[in-house]
Amino acid sequence: MLLLQEKQKQVAKRGGPRMEETAGIQCGDSKNGKEVEKGWSFWSYHHGALSSFLSILATFPIHKTIFRQQIHAFSIHKAVCQLHREGLCCLYRGILPPLMSKTLQGTLMFGTYDSFLSFLSSNTSDSYVLPQRWAAGFFSGSMEALVLNPFERVQNILQDGRKNSRFPNTRSILQEFNSYGLKERLVIGYYRGLGPVLLRNSLGSALYFSFKDPLRDSLSNKGLPSWLPALVSGSVNGTLTSLMLYPLTVLIANMQSQVGGHEVLSLWKSMQSVWQSRGRKLTLLYRGGSLLVLRACPTWGITTAIHDFLTENAGRDRRG
Predict the structure, then answer these.
(1) Cβ count within 10 A of residue 137
(2) Is residue 204 within 8 Å of 246, Cβ to Cβ?
(3) Does some domain include residue 276?
(4) Which of 141, 196, 279, 314 would be a feasible disulfide site paired with 40, CB 3.0-4.6 Å?
(5) Number of structural domains, the chain?
(6) Is residue 36 situated within a structural domain?
(7) Which range marks the domain in which residue 168 is found?
């Protein structure tokens, strides 16, 4: 009897770890859960891109109004009146570059962030420290800027009403750029304003990813509906980050709307020109900021909520 009990204890002792490992695979411990998320990251890219695509369709008129305020230092009323005079046919002029860029942004932002985060840390759990999230977000934003700068450049030219007759469509802009020499084609053509774009995107992604998950997790403990913490976290982080970096966006819009050697100014002269045109007032530099909040809040919130929802459910389905 004693021998039988001893054998049962040995079997239970040997079987225990195997049962725990099996449970870890089926239910998903933090390590396996993270691996599943990475394995199924394609789906989060896809739906993140779709969310960005739909968001830009809905918010493009607001974005164009903001752009006119950035260029001309108009009030909201004057910017809307200018767009009204141009007519409905011109309202969505210039939408193709942001549609393409936002779709790419939806795939790049989360995907490259996860890749850089894995590279920077051997930790496979969800508990990455702040410096790791910051660095991964910074590199992700830099990669995003390098890929998307040409799209933003074309978009800013198309949205400038002063360029309507000279550049009626995207093709005319590309023909202008391709007529330059190789160096000029990159420096004053497709990658005009790259320095400020790199700074804005890298800092923006670093700030967004550094605080998105901690804020979401803190809200999740409040007993809110499961989808609400990610929505609020994305909205708050995206909006605050966009507002903080808005002066850089104004500078970029002015630099990238310049075409041709006689128009193109250096970075320092462009900064001086923008500051002078705003009457040396920070309040005028933030013209368009109110509409920026209206556009950024739903865009970032929806994108974040969809990504987090799909990542969580894809991991659960894979583990199931």
Answers:
(1) 27
(2) no
(3) yes
(4) 314
(5) 1
(6) no
(7) 44-319
Residue 112 CA from chain centroid, whole number: 11
46, 52, 118, 235 from 106: Cα distances, Å? 8, 6, 19, 16
Please count the other Cβ atoms lying within 10 Å of the Cβ belonging to residue 30: 13
Greatest mean pLDDT among 109-118, 164-173, 189-198:
189-198
Per the CB < 8 A criterion, the answer to whether 196 and 141 are in contact is no
Q: Is residue 165 part of a domain?
A: yes
Full DSSP string of 5-33? HHHHHHHHHHHHHHHHHHHIIIII-HHHH
Q: Which secondary structure element, helix H or strand E, spans residue 204, and what is its range?
A: helix 194-220
- φ, ψ for residue 208, nearest 5 deg: -60, -50
- By 3-state DSSP, what share of the chain in percent is helix, strand and coil, each rounded to 5? 80, 0, 20
CA diameter of the chain: 99
pLDDT tens-place string over residues 68-119: 887 888 888 898 999 999 888 888 888 887 888 788 888 888 888 888 888 8
With tokens 């040995």, the residue in question is: 10
Give a yes or no: residue 24 inside a domain.
no
Rounded Cα distance between 58 and 126, Å, is 33
